Amino acid sequence: MGGGWNTIVGGLMLYFFTTYGGVSVGESATILFVARIVDAVASLLIGPATDNFYRTRLGRRFGRRHFFLLVGVPALLVVFPLLWVSGGGFWYYLVVYLAVEIVMAFILIPWETLPTEMTDDYTQRTKLSSTRMFLSATGTFVVFFVPAMVKETGNPHAFTITGTIFAVLFGAAVLTTYLTTWERELTPELVAELDARPRLTAREAVATTLRDFGSTFRNASFRKHLTIYLFSFTGKDVYASALTFFTVYAVTIPDGEQMGFILQTLSIVGLPVTVVAGFLMVRKGPRFLWATSYSLILLSLVATGAIYLLRPGAVVVLLVVVNVVYQAGRALLEFTPWNVFPFIPDVDRVMTGKDRAGIYAAVMTFGRKSTGALATLLVGWLLELGGFVSPGSDGEPVAQTAGALHTVVLVTVLAPAVLILVAFVVSRLFRLDAASHAVLRAEIDRLEAGGAKADAAPEARAVAEQLTGRPYDELWPAEGADAKAAVLV
Protein backbone atom coordinates (compact mmCIF):
# COMPACT_ATOMS: atom_id res chain seq x y z
CA MET A 1 0.00 0.00 0.00
CA GLY A 2 2.79 2.44 0.87
CA GLY A 3 4.54 2.14 -2.48
CA GLY A 4 1.24 1.97 -4.32
CA TRP A 5 -0.19 5.10 -2.73
CA ASN A 6 2.90 7.21 -3.29
CA THR A 7 3.02 6.02 -6.89
CA ILE A 8 -0.61 7.05 -7.34
CA VAL A 9 0.13 10.52 -6.01
CA GLY A 10 3.32 10.89 -8.02
CA GLY A 11 2.27 9.24 -11.25
CA LEU A 12 -1.51 9.21 -11.66
CA MET A 13 -3.40 11.89 -9.75
CA LEU A 14 -2.21 14.94 -11.71
CA TYR A 15 -3.13 13.28 -15.01
CA PHE A 16 -6.49 12.04 -13.67
CA PHE A 17 -7.54 15.43 -12.26
CA THR A 18 -6.43 17.24 -15.42
CA THR A 19 -7.93 14.84 -17.95
CA TYR A 20 -11.07 13.54 -16.21
CA GLY A 21 -11.69 15.78 -13.22
CA GLY A 22 -12.75 18.92 -15.02
CA VAL A 23 -9.96 21.10 -13.59
CA SER A 24 -6.96 22.78 -15.22
CA VAL A 25 -3.42 21.49 -14.83
CA GLY A 26 -2.63 24.40 -12.50
CA GLU A 27 -5.69 23.71 -10.33
CA SER A 28 -4.84 20.00 -10.25
CA ALA A 29 -1.34 20.76 -9.01
CA THR A 30 -2.81 23.13 -6.40
CA ILE A 31 -5.10 20.39 -5.07
CA LEU A 32 -2.18 18.03 -4.61
CA PHE A 33 0.02 20.74 -3.10
CA VAL A 34 -2.48 22.18 -0.60
CA ALA A 35 -3.79 18.82 0.60
CA ARG A 36 -0.31 17.35 1.05
CA ILE A 37 0.98 20.39 2.94
CA VAL A 38 -2.02 20.39 5.31
CA ASP A 39 -1.64 16.65 5.77
CA ALA A 40 2.12 17.00 6.31
CA VAL A 41 1.48 19.44 9.15
CA ALA A 42 -1.08 17.05 10.67
CA SER A 43 1.48 14.26 10.37
CA LEU A 44 3.77 16.16 12.73
CA LEU A 45 1.53 15.09 15.59
CA ILE A 46 0.90 11.47 14.58
CA GLY A 47 4.45 10.15 15.10
CA PRO A 48 4.84 11.43 18.67
CA ALA A 49 1.25 10.35 19.37
CA THR A 50 2.14 6.76 18.48
CA ASP A 51 5.28 6.97 20.65
CA ASN A 52 3.10 7.81 23.67
CA PHE A 53 -0.03 5.79 22.86
CA TYR A 54 1.08 2.93 25.14
CA ARG A 55 -0.25 5.05 28.04
CA THR A 56 -3.85 4.50 26.88
CA ARG A 57 -5.97 1.40 27.40
CA LEU A 58 -6.34 0.99 23.63
CA GLY A 59 -2.59 1.31 23.14
CA ARG A 60 -1.88 -1.38 25.74
CA ARG A 61 -4.47 -3.71 24.22
CA PHE A 62 -3.81 -3.27 20.49
CA GLY A 63 -0.27 -1.85 20.46
CA ARG A 64 0.88 1.74 20.35
CA ARG A 65 1.60 1.43 16.60
CA HIS A 66 -0.90 -1.28 15.64
CA PHE A 67 -3.98 0.53 16.91
CA PHE A 68 -3.55 3.15 14.19
CA LEU A 69 -3.27 0.46 11.53
CA LEU A 70 -6.47 -1.18 12.73
CA VAL A 71 -8.65 1.95 12.68
CA GLY A 72 -7.16 2.97 9.34
CA VAL A 73 -8.68 0.01 7.48
CA PRO A 74 -12.39 0.98 7.60
CA ALA A 75 -11.53 4.64 7.05
CA LEU A 76 -9.58 3.68 3.94
CA LEU A 77 -12.43 1.59 2.55
CA VAL A 78 -14.86 4.50 2.95
CA VAL A 79 -12.93 7.51 1.65
CA PHE A 80 -10.59 6.11 -1.00
CA PRO A 81 -13.17 5.20 -3.72
CA LEU A 82 -14.65 8.72 -3.46
CA LEU A 83 -11.43 10.15 -4.88
CA TRP A 84 -11.96 8.47 -8.26
CA VAL A 85 -15.30 9.99 -9.26
CA SER A 86 -14.96 11.79 -12.62
CA GLY A 87 -15.93 15.44 -13.08
CA GLY A 88 -15.89 16.32 -9.38
CA GLY A 89 -14.35 19.75 -9.79
CA PHE A 90 -11.76 21.63 -7.74
CA TRP A 91 -13.38 21.79 -4.29
CA TYR A 92 -14.66 18.21 -4.34
CA TYR A 93 -11.24 16.79 -5.11
CA LEU A 94 -9.50 19.09 -2.64
CA VAL A 95 -11.69 17.97 0.30
CA VAL A 96 -11.71 14.26 -0.57
CA TYR A 97 -8.02 14.14 -1.36
CA LEU A 98 -7.21 15.84 1.96
CA ALA A 99 -9.28 13.22 3.81
CA VAL A 100 -7.49 10.39 2.00
CA GLU A 101 -4.07 11.86 2.80
CA ILE A 102 -4.86 12.08 6.51
CA VAL A 103 -6.06 8.47 6.58
CA MET A 104 -2.86 7.42 4.81
CA ALA A 105 -0.73 9.29 7.35
CA PHE A 106 -2.64 7.59 10.16
CA ILE A 107 -1.47 4.27 8.70
CA LEU A 108 1.95 4.95 7.22
CA ILE A 109 3.69 6.76 10.09
CA PRO A 110 3.30 3.97 12.68
CA TRP A 111 3.96 1.39 9.94
CA GLU A 112 7.34 2.99 9.16
CA THR A 113 8.51 2.35 12.75
CA LEU A 114 7.85 -1.42 12.66
CA PRO A 115 11.28 -2.64 11.43
CA THR A 116 12.87 -0.73 14.32
CA GLU A 117 10.29 -2.17 16.73
CA MET A 118 10.64 -5.77 15.55
CA THR A 119 14.42 -6.30 15.86
CA ASP A 120 17.70 -4.54 16.66
CA ASP A 121 19.78 -6.72 14.32
CA TYR A 122 21.05 -5.12 11.07
CA THR A 123 20.65 -8.26 8.93
CA GLN A 124 17.19 -9.08 10.31
CA ARG A 125 16.00 -5.53 9.78
CA THR A 126 17.34 -5.65 6.23
CA LYS A 127 15.45 -8.90 5.58
CA LEU A 128 12.24 -7.40 6.97
CA SER A 129 12.63 -4.19 4.99
CA SER A 130 13.61 -6.10 1.85
CA THR A 131 10.47 -8.20 2.06
CA ARG A 132 8.45 -5.05 2.65
CA MET A 133 9.99 -3.31 -0.37
CA PHE A 134 9.46 -6.41 -2.54
CA LEU A 135 5.74 -6.15 -1.87
CA SER A 136 5.91 -2.39 -2.31
CA ALA A 137 7.31 -2.95 -5.81
CA THR A 138 4.27 -5.14 -6.49
CA GLY A 139 2.03 -2.27 -5.40
CA THR A 140 3.81 0.11 -7.76
CA PHE A 141 3.11 -2.27 -10.64
CA VAL A 142 -0.54 -2.77 -9.67
CA VAL A 143 -1.19 0.98 -9.54
CA PHE A 144 -0.79 1.25 -13.32
CA PHE A 145 -1.72 -2.29 -14.35
CA VAL A 146 -5.24 -2.08 -12.88
CA PRO A 147 -6.34 1.18 -14.62
CA ALA A 148 -4.74 0.02 -17.88
CA MET A 149 -6.75 -3.22 -17.80
CA VAL A 150 -10.00 -1.65 -16.59
CA LYS A 151 -9.84 1.11 -19.23
CA GLU A 152 -9.28 -1.56 -21.87
CA THR A 153 -12.86 -2.74 -21.23
CA GLY A 154 -14.23 0.64 -22.32
CA ASN A 155 -16.26 1.05 -19.13
CA PRO A 156 -17.13 4.75 -18.62
CA HIS A 157 -16.65 4.33 -14.86
CA ALA A 158 -13.20 2.78 -15.23
CA PHE A 159 -11.48 5.04 -12.70
CA THR A 160 -14.22 4.63 -10.08
CA ILE A 161 -13.90 0.86 -10.42
CA THR A 162 -10.13 1.24 -10.19
CA GLY A 163 -10.42 3.27 -6.97
CA THR A 164 -12.65 0.64 -5.39
CA ILE A 165 -10.20 -2.13 -6.30
CA PHE A 166 -7.35 -0.10 -4.80
CA ALA A 167 -9.31 0.47 -1.58
CA VAL A 168 -9.92 -3.26 -1.10
CA LEU A 169 -6.32 -4.21 -1.93
CA PHE A 170 -4.82 -1.53 0.33
CA GLY A 171 -7.21 -2.33 3.17
CA ALA A 172 -6.29 -6.01 2.95
CA ALA A 173 -2.59 -5.09 2.99
CA VAL A 174 -2.95 -2.99 6.13
CA LEU A 175 -5.00 -5.68 7.90
CA THR A 176 -2.37 -8.29 6.98
CA THR A 177 0.33 -6.04 8.44
CA TYR A 178 -1.67 -5.64 11.65
CA LEU A 179 -2.03 -9.41 12.02
CA THR A 180 1.52 -10.49 11.15
CA THR A 181 3.86 -7.91 12.71
CA TRP A 182 4.81 -7.12 16.30
CA GLU A 183 6.11 -4.29 18.44
CA ARG A 184 8.89 -4.07 20.99
CA GLU A 185 7.70 -5.73 24.17
CA LEU A 186 6.51 -3.28 26.80
CA THR A 187 8.88 -4.53 29.48
CA PRO A 188 9.00 -2.78 32.86
CA GLU A 189 12.29 -1.21 31.78
CA LEU A 190 10.83 0.18 28.53
CA VAL A 191 7.65 1.39 30.26
CA ALA A 192 9.74 3.12 32.93
CA GLU A 193 11.83 4.78 30.23
CA LEU A 194 8.74 5.92 28.34
CA ASP A 195 6.95 7.04 31.51
CA ALA A 196 9.93 9.21 32.40
CA ARG A 197 8.87 11.50 29.58
CA PRO A 198 6.71 14.37 30.91
CA ARG A 199 2.98 14.64 30.23
CA LEU A 200 2.25 17.81 28.29
CA THR A 201 -0.67 20.04 27.36
CA ALA A 202 -1.62 20.32 23.68
CA ARG A 203 0.33 23.58 23.29
CA GLU A 204 3.35 22.13 25.09
CA ALA A 205 3.10 18.98 22.98
CA VAL A 206 3.20 21.01 19.74
CA ALA A 207 6.16 23.07 20.97
CA THR A 208 7.99 19.95 22.16
CA THR A 209 7.26 18.14 18.90
CA LEU A 210 8.67 20.99 16.84
CA ARG A 211 11.73 21.11 19.09
CA ASP A 212 12.17 17.35 18.78
CA PHE A 213 11.85 17.55 15.02
CA GLY A 214 14.50 20.24 14.93
CA SER A 215 16.78 18.11 17.08
CA THR A 216 16.78 15.30 14.48
CA PHE A 217 18.84 17.54 12.22
CA ARG A 218 21.72 17.40 14.70
CA ASN A 219 22.10 13.81 13.51
CA ALA A 220 24.58 13.95 10.60
CA SER A 221 23.55 10.56 9.20
CA PHE A 222 19.91 11.61 9.20
CA ARG A 223 20.64 14.94 7.48
CA LYS A 224 22.40 13.14 4.64
CA HIS A 225 19.81 10.38 4.50
CA LEU A 226 16.92 12.85 4.37
CA THR A 227 18.61 14.86 1.60
CA ILE A 228 19.22 11.73 -0.47
CA TYR A 229 15.68 10.50 0.16
CA LEU A 230 13.85 13.71 -0.62
CA PHE A 231 15.79 14.72 -3.72
CA SER A 232 15.73 11.24 -5.27
CA PHE A 233 12.07 10.56 -4.51
CA THR A 234 11.07 14.01 -5.75
CA GLY A 235 12.99 13.33 -8.94
CA LYS A 236 11.17 10.07 -9.59
CA ASP A 237 7.86 11.75 -8.67
CA VAL A 238 8.42 14.42 -11.30
CA TYR A 239 9.23 11.78 -13.92
CA ALA A 240 6.19 9.67 -13.02
CA SER A 241 3.88 12.71 -13.07
CA ALA A 242 5.12 13.83 -16.46
CA LEU A 243 5.58 10.50 -18.29
CA THR A 244 1.97 10.06 -19.43
CA PHE A 245 1.92 13.67 -20.64
CA PHE A 246 5.12 12.81 -22.57
CA THR A 247 3.62 9.74 -24.28
CA VAL A 248 0.33 11.48 -25.06
CA TYR A 249 1.69 14.79 -26.36
CA ALA A 250 5.47 14.78 -26.95
CA VAL A 251 5.90 11.62 -29.04
CA THR A 252 3.56 10.29 -31.72
CA ILE A 253 2.12 7.10 -30.24
CA PRO A 254 -1.38 5.72 -30.90
CA ASP A 255 -3.33 5.74 -27.61
CA GLY A 256 -0.54 7.51 -25.75
CA GLU A 257 -2.49 7.43 -22.48
CA GLN A 258 -2.63 3.64 -22.49
CA MET A 259 1.05 3.56 -23.44
CA GLY A 260 1.92 5.82 -20.52
CA PHE A 261 0.21 3.43 -18.10
CA ILE A 262 1.89 0.42 -19.71
CA LEU A 263 5.34 1.99 -19.39
CA GLN A 264 4.68 2.55 -15.70
CA THR A 265 3.62 -1.10 -15.29
CA LEU A 266 7.17 -2.03 -16.24
CA SER A 267 7.84 -1.38 -12.56
CA ILE A 268 7.26 -5.15 -12.33
CA VAL A 269 10.99 -5.48 -13.05
CA GLY A 270 11.43 -4.05 -9.57
CA LEU A 271 10.44 -7.40 -8.05
CA PRO A 272 13.58 -9.37 -8.96
CA VAL A 273 15.67 -6.21 -8.56
CA THR A 274 14.41 -5.83 -5.00
CA VAL A 275 15.32 -9.43 -4.18
CA VAL A 276 18.87 -8.92 -5.42
CA ALA A 277 19.06 -5.57 -3.64
CA GLY A 278 18.35 -7.26 -0.31
CA PHE A 279 21.53 -9.31 -0.64
CA LEU A 280 23.55 -6.37 -1.95
CA MET A 281 22.40 -4.22 0.95
CA VAL A 282 24.12 -6.57 3.40
CA ARG A 283 27.20 -7.30 1.28
CA LYS A 284 27.84 -3.98 -0.48
CA GLY A 285 25.94 -1.41 1.57
CA PRO A 286 23.68 1.50 0.63
CA ARG A 287 26.30 3.61 -1.20
CA PHE A 288 26.73 0.89 -3.84
CA LEU A 289 22.97 0.58 -4.34
CA TRP A 290 22.52 4.34 -4.63
CA ALA A 291 25.34 4.65 -7.17
CA THR A 292 23.85 1.85 -9.29
CA SER A 293 20.33 3.27 -9.03
CA TYR A 294 21.17 6.84 -9.95
CA SER A 295 23.44 5.81 -12.83
CA LEU A 296 20.66 3.72 -14.39
CA ILE A 297 18.10 6.51 -13.95
CA LEU A 298 20.33 9.22 -15.42
CA LEU A 299 21.13 6.99 -18.41
CA SER A 300 17.39 6.44 -18.96
CA LEU A 301 16.59 10.14 -18.78
CA VAL A 302 19.26 10.97 -21.37
CA ALA A 303 17.85 8.25 -23.65
CA THR A 304 14.30 9.59 -23.22
CA GLY A 305 15.42 13.06 -24.27
CA ALA A 306 17.24 11.57 -27.27
CA ILE A 307 14.10 9.74 -28.40
CA TYR A 308 12.21 13.04 -28.50
CA LEU A 309 14.96 14.93 -30.31
CA LEU A 310 15.95 12.28 -32.85
CA ARG A 311 12.50 10.73 -33.50
CA PRO A 312 13.89 7.30 -34.44
CA GLY A 313 11.78 4.46 -35.75
CA ALA A 314 10.24 1.93 -33.35
CA VAL A 315 9.63 4.60 -30.70
CA VAL A 316 7.43 2.27 -28.67
CA VAL A 317 10.09 -0.45 -28.51
CA LEU A 318 12.77 2.07 -27.51
CA LEU A 319 10.58 3.56 -24.80
CA VAL A 320 9.92 0.09 -23.41
CA VAL A 321 13.64 -0.71 -23.29
CA VAL A 322 14.51 2.64 -21.73
CA ASN A 323 11.81 2.31 -19.09
CA VAL A 324 12.84 -1.23 -18.18
CA VAL A 325 16.26 0.23 -17.32
CA TYR A 326 14.62 3.18 -15.56
CA GLN A 327 12.34 0.96 -13.48
CA ALA A 328 15.30 -1.17 -12.37
CA GLY A 329 16.99 2.01 -11.14
CA ARG A 330 13.77 3.26 -9.57
CA ALA A 331 13.34 0.00 -7.65
CA LEU A 332 16.79 0.48 -6.11
CA LEU A 333 16.00 4.13 -5.46
CA GLU A 334 12.89 3.22 -3.45
CA PHE A 335 14.43 0.18 -1.78
CA THR A 336 17.57 1.74 -0.33
CA PRO A 337 16.37 4.67 1.85
CA TRP A 338 13.73 2.59 3.61
CA ASN A 339 16.26 -0.14 4.31
CA VAL A 340 18.63 2.44 5.77
CA PHE A 341 15.96 4.22 7.84
CA PRO A 342 15.48 1.54 10.56
CA PHE A 343 19.09 2.11 11.63
CA ILE A 344 18.86 5.90 11.86
CA PRO A 345 17.11 5.82 15.30
CA ASP A 346 20.11 3.89 16.63
CA VAL A 347 22.35 6.81 15.68
CA ASP A 348 19.95 9.06 17.56
CA ARG A 349 19.93 6.67 20.51
CA VAL A 350 23.65 7.04 21.09
CA MET A 351 23.13 10.81 20.94
CA THR A 352 20.13 11.06 23.28
CA GLY A 353 19.79 7.74 25.10
CA LYS A 354 16.14 7.65 23.98
CA ASP A 355 13.86 5.66 21.66
CA ARG A 356 12.58 8.22 19.16
CA ALA A 357 11.78 6.11 16.08
CA GLY A 358 8.32 7.68 15.81
CA ILE A 359 9.75 11.19 15.68
CA TYR A 360 12.15 10.25 12.90
CA ALA A 361 9.36 8.50 10.97
CA ALA A 362 7.20 11.61 11.30
CA VAL A 363 9.98 13.88 10.02
CA MET A 364 10.59 11.53 7.09
CA THR A 365 6.88 11.46 6.26
CA PHE A 366 6.55 15.23 6.65
CA GLY A 367 9.48 15.79 4.33
CA ARG A 368 8.25 13.25 1.80
CA LYS A 369 4.77 14.70 1.67
CA SER A 370 6.02 18.27 1.46
CA THR A 371 8.43 17.57 -1.38
CA GLY A 372 5.90 15.28 -3.08
CA ALA A 373 3.51 18.21 -3.03
CA LEU A 374 6.21 20.45 -4.47
CA ALA A 375 6.93 17.91 -7.23
CA THR A 376 3.35 17.88 -8.51
CA LEU A 377 3.08 21.65 -8.09
CA LEU A 378 6.31 22.06 -10.06
CA VAL A 379 5.07 19.83 -12.87
CA GLY A 380 1.67 21.52 -13.04
CA TRP A 381 3.08 25.02 -12.78
CA LEU A 382 5.74 24.44 -15.45
CA LEU A 383 3.26 22.84 -17.84
CA GLU A 384 0.83 25.71 -17.42
CA LEU A 385 3.64 28.26 -17.75
CA GLY A 386 4.72 26.53 -20.97
CA GLY A 387 1.26 26.96 -22.44
CA PHE A 388 -0.15 23.47 -21.89
CA VAL A 389 -3.92 23.27 -22.52
CA SER A 390 -5.96 20.74 -20.53
CA PRO A 391 -8.40 18.45 -22.40
CA GLY A 392 -12.12 19.13 -22.43
CA SER A 393 -14.71 17.21 -20.48
CA ASP A 394 -14.43 14.24 -22.88
CA GLY A 395 -10.81 13.66 -21.85
CA GLU A 396 -9.59 13.70 -25.47
CA PRO A 397 -6.09 15.23 -25.98
CA VAL A 398 -5.97 18.67 -27.60
CA ALA A 399 -3.32 20.10 -29.91
CA GLN A 400 -0.45 21.78 -28.05
CA THR A 401 1.97 24.48 -29.17
CA ALA A 402 5.62 23.65 -29.84
CA GLY A 403 6.55 25.53 -26.66
CA ALA A 404 4.16 23.41 -24.61
CA LEU A 405 5.62 20.21 -26.08
CA HIS A 406 9.18 21.34 -25.29
CA THR A 407 8.06 22.09 -21.73
CA VAL A 408 6.62 18.59 -21.35
CA VAL A 409 9.97 17.13 -22.42
CA LEU A 410 12.02 19.38 -20.14
CA VAL A 411 9.83 18.48 -17.17
CA THR A 412 10.08 14.77 -18.00
CA VAL A 413 13.85 14.70 -18.53
CA LEU A 414 15.78 17.69 -17.17
CA ALA A 415 13.97 18.38 -13.88
CA PRO A 416 14.31 14.82 -12.48
CA ALA A 417 17.92 14.59 -13.73
CA VAL A 418 18.96 17.63 -11.68
CA LEU A 419 17.29 16.26 -8.53
CA ILE A 420 18.84 12.80 -8.97
CA LEU A 421 22.30 14.33 -9.43
CA VAL A 422 22.04 16.12 -6.08
CA ALA A 423 21.07 12.87 -4.35
CA PHE A 424 23.94 11.07 -6.11
CA VAL A 425 26.55 13.53 -4.81
CA VAL A 426 25.28 13.42 -1.21
CA SER A 427 25.04 9.61 -1.23
CA ARG A 428 28.80 9.39 -1.71
CA LEU A 429 29.22 11.00 1.73
CA PHE A 430 26.94 8.54 3.59
CA ARG A 431 28.74 6.12 5.97
CA LEU A 432 26.06 4.13 7.83
CA ASP A 433 26.27 0.48 6.75
CA ALA A 434 26.39 -3.01 8.28
CA ALA A 435 29.95 -2.66 9.60
CA SER A 436 29.53 0.78 11.15
CA HIS A 437 26.11 -0.12 12.57
CA ALA A 438 27.54 -3.21 14.27
CA VAL A 439 30.17 -1.06 16.02
CA LEU A 440 27.54 1.53 16.97
CA ARG A 441 25.07 -1.06 18.26
CA ALA A 442 27.76 -2.72 20.40
CA GLU A 443 28.62 0.65 21.92
CA ILE A 444 24.95 1.38 22.68
CA ASP A 445 24.61 -2.02 24.36
CA ARG A 446 27.74 -1.35 26.42
CA LEU A 447 26.48 2.06 27.55
CA GLU A 448 23.00 0.69 28.33
CA ALA A 449 24.62 -1.97 30.52
CA GLY A 450 26.21 0.79 32.59
CA GLY A 451 29.56 1.05 30.81
CA ALA A 452 31.49 4.29 31.28
CA LYS A 453 31.97 6.65 28.35
CA ALA A 454 35.63 6.98 29.33
CA ASP A 455 36.12 3.29 28.58
CA ALA A 456 34.93 3.52 24.96
CA ALA A 457 37.21 1.84 22.43
CA PRO A 458 38.89 4.14 19.87
CA GLU A 459 36.98 2.50 17.00
CA ALA A 460 33.64 2.99 18.79
CA ARG A 461 34.46 6.64 19.42
CA ALA A 462 35.45 7.21 15.81
CA VAL A 463 32.38 5.48 14.36
CA ALA A 464 29.98 7.24 16.74
CA GLU A 465 31.46 10.62 15.88
CA GLN A 466 31.41 9.93 12.15
CA LEU A 467 27.77 8.81 12.15
CA THR A 468 26.43 11.46 14.50
CA GLY A 469 28.63 14.37 13.43
CA ARG A 470 29.12 15.20 17.13
CA PRO A 471 32.11 14.87 19.48
CA TYR A 472 31.91 11.65 21.47
CA ASP A 473 31.91 13.53 24.78
CA GLU A 474 28.57 15.11 23.79
CA LEU A 475 26.94 11.72 23.13
CA TRP A 476 24.91 9.57 25.54
CA PRO A 477 24.03 12.53 27.77
CA ALA A 478 24.11 12.18 31.54
CA GLU A 479 20.33 12.46 31.86
CA GLY A 480 19.90 9.57 29.41
CA ALA A 481 22.43 7.45 31.29
CA ASP A 482 20.94 8.35 34.66
CA ALA A 483 17.45 7.48 33.47
CA LYS A 484 18.65 4.14 32.17
CA ALA A 485 20.47 3.40 35.44
CA ALA A 486 17.30 4.21 37.40
CA VAL A 487 15.32 1.82 35.20
CA LEU A 488 17.86 -0.96 35.76
CA VAL A 489 17.70 -0.42 39.56
From TrEMBL:
Does this entry carry the keyword Nuclease? no
Mark the transmembrane ranges. 67-84, 90-111, 132-150, 156-179, 228-249, 261-281, 288-308, 314-333, 359-383, 403-426
A GO biological-process term? carbohydrate transport
The GO terms this record gives for MF are: symporter activity
Cellular component GO terms held in the UniProt record: plasma membrane
Q: Does the keyword Nucleotide-binding apply?
A: no
Checking InterPro entries in the record gives: MFS_2 (IPR039672), MFS_trans_sf (IPR036259)
Secretion signal, residue range per the UniProt entry = none
Q: Which Pfam families match?
A: MFS_2 (PF13347)
Q: Which UniProt keywords apply?
A: Membrane, Transmembrane, Transmembrane helix
State the source organism's domain of life. Bacteria
Q: Which PANTHER family match?
A: MAJOR FACILITATOR SUPERFAMILY (MFS) PROFILE DOMAIN-CONTAINING PROTEIN, MAJOR FACILITATOR SUPERFAMILY DOMAIN-CONTAINING PROTEIN
The protein here is known as: MFS transporter
Species lineage: Bacteria, Bacillati, Actinomycetota, Actinomycetes, Micrococcales
